[in-house]
Design goal:
The complex is a heterodimer of chains A (124) and B (110). Chain A is mainly beta and 124 residues long. Chain A has no helices and 11 strands. With 110 residues, chain B is an all-beta fold. In chain B, the strands form 2 sheets. In chain B, strands 1, 3, 4, 7, 8 and 9 form a 6-stranded mixed sheet that branches. Chain B has a 3-stranded antiparallel sheet with strand order 2-6-5, with no helix packed on it. Classes of the chains: A mainly beta (124), B mainly beta (110).
Amino acid sequence: DVQLLESGGGLVQPGGSLRLSCAASGFTFSNFPMGWVRQAPGKGLEWVSAISGGGDDTYYADSAKGRFTISRDNSKNTLYLLMSSLRAEDTALYYCAKVLVATMTTAYWYFDLWGRGTLVTVSS
Amino acid sequence: QSVLTQPPSVSAAPGQKVTISCSGSSSNIGNNFVSWYQQLPGTAPKLLIYDNNKRPSGIPDRFSASKSGTSATLGITGLQTGDEADYYCGTWDTSLSAGVFGGGTKLTVL
């Protein structure tokens, strides 16, 4: 089955760090760009970060720049998001998502496969 | 505040048609492709439309979309109660070098 399974969420204090993981299966992981999208409780979707298939190119929302690092291990079919200096406003359900087509052109980076999300709560 | 602007809510009766607008700028919609997502309550988003107006396999032709200048529109015909969901537009923003979503539109089928 084609699927994404996130893990690593939890409760963390403000200023703390957390690493999210996303295990992919059912497709050739290394071919496809991947991304993270988050959704605060009761709010809309927020694009967080994305990475090319080979991992050389990374992109971040302004809210994530300098604090979050996206990476991938294609030998393990796993996507990561390392989050540091966490703030209360980072509290959200974090979705891992696969890009529809294997392309380097970011204009075509639509997310066609989504995980169920992992919840991150930043609170003291 | 989202880079892309959508109406917070729309509503229509079963069987009717509804449209949802998405407004942006030249750095995003104006020069990039638009996608649309449906998020049913308690579930992950689902890709409805990509490349401005293409439907992934399995998406019924009741869903259509178009783009003109810096705006895009999603249309849903033959509304069903099962279409009640939040709908989001998305695109790449060249100035931000990042993806962006609209704030979402809640569809109510009365």
